[in-house]
Amino acid sequence: MARSRFMTLERHIIEGERMHPEATGELSRLLSDLAIAIKIISLEVNKAGIVDILGLTGDENVHGESVRKLDMYAHDMMFKAMDHGGHLCIMASEEEEDIIHIPTDFEIGRYVLLFDPLDGSSNIDANVSIGTIFSIYRRQSPDGLPGTLEDCLQPGYKQVAAGYVVYGSSTMLVYTAGHGVHGFTLDPSIGEFILSHPDIRIPQKGKIYSVNEGNYKYWHPGLKQYIKFLQEEDAPSSRPYSTRYIGSMVADVHRTLLYGGIFMYPADSRSPKGKLRLMYECNPVAFITEAAGGIATDGNMRLMDKVPEHLHERSPIFIGSPDDVNTLLRFLRRAEEAGLV
Ligand code: AHG
Ligand code: MN
Ligand code: MN
């Protein structure tokens, strides 16, 4: 009989840990708890059309955006799955203004969890892919005590693991613990994540750009010139590029990781810090993309070197294939040197 190459997420995490004898197993257990939360959210996302879960709750989140019911469901589920495992000392969520403490009757752990429970929520009602994003750090404050805001405000390069889930035509989880990026597809019949995309490497160069071009008027002149450049005809460099923009960052980044190219959410004259959140959205996908051989920058510096000042701060993001991001950076610099900014 042929040897089985069937690899569940659980087994993959345990085997990954075996290669690091210094590991205690705590991070593995944390990731397993997370996988349970994700399976439950996935189930609910798939039911979204048939239960009364669509539509707004009527509240606004900390960013002044209307909150959809599924956002709150996913937020609560992440908290409930992660508060009692004994692995975390603190959490923070895009949907909650303050840091989230571990209830006092539960054990306090060594890790910090930041998450965007539901990304791309404006797409829910149209049955378009949405996702969940998470980021894990080691605590900086002394062990045994409740975690602090400083534990959450760490630069992205200190992440020990990060991942995202796409609830699409199937549910996929992509994660890295720093060594390799691995993608798992949820088999709904057995409720297991199965390794479907081992060791994902982003192509050196792509032929797709992804940005909300409706904001063109408000962009940096270098970005305008770059987009015009991508639209010119030049077969050897695969131009003109195609445009793809789903409006769910996880789905746009996931495609970029697999097919190559560049995803952008720039700053503009109306939003000088961009839209996406550094801690919940930009840093985790930056960690994953770099681990897959890509580049993630805010246009001036490496995203993961930014030292956050606020839990909910926003950042511009340019992320993707190395050749594409480097070309964009040249356009931005050139426009600045020409005094266009
Ligand atoms: P969220 O649903 O967590 O608030 O995130 C939505 C984000 C992100 O997923 C996406 O890339 C971006 O909003 C789309 O914004 P625009 O509609 O401005 O293009
Ligand atoms: Mn989001
Ligand atoms: Mn969200």
Short descriptors:
binds 2,5-anhydro-1,6-di-O-phosphono-D-glucitol; binds manganese (II) ion; Fructose-1,6-Bisphosphatase, Chain A, domain 1; 341 residues; D-Maltodextrin-Binding Protein, domain 2; alpha+beta; 5-stranded mixed beta sheet
Reconstruct the topology from this structure:
Elements: H1 9-18, H2 26-46, E1 56-60, E2 66-68, H3 69-82, E3 88-93, E4 100-101, E5 111-119, E6 130-138, H4 149-152, E7 159-167, E8 171-176, E9 181-187, E10 192-197, E11 208-210, H5 221-231, E12 242-243, H6 249-259, E13 262-265, H7 278-291, E14 295-297, E15 317-320, H8 322-337
The structure holds 2,5-anhydro-1,6-di-O-phosphono-D-glucitol and manganese (II) ion (2 copies).
Describe it for me?
By secondary structure, the chain is an alpha+beta fold. It has two domains: 9-197, Fructose-1,6-Bisphosphatase, subunit A, domain 1 (Fructose-1,6-Bisphosphatase, Chain A, domain 1), CATH 3.30.540; 208-337, 3-Layer(aba) Sandwich (D-Maltodextrin-Binding Protein, domain 2), CATH 3.40.190. Helix content is 30%, strand content 23%. The protein is built from eight helices and 15 strands. Helix 1 (9-18) runs antiparallel to helix 2 (26-46) and helix 2 (26-46) runs antiparallel to helix 3 (69-82). The radius of gyration is 20 Å and the shape is globular. The model has no long low-confidence stretch (mean pLDDT 93). The structure holds 2,5-anhydro-1,6-di-O-phosphono-D-glucitol and manganese (II) ion (2 copies).
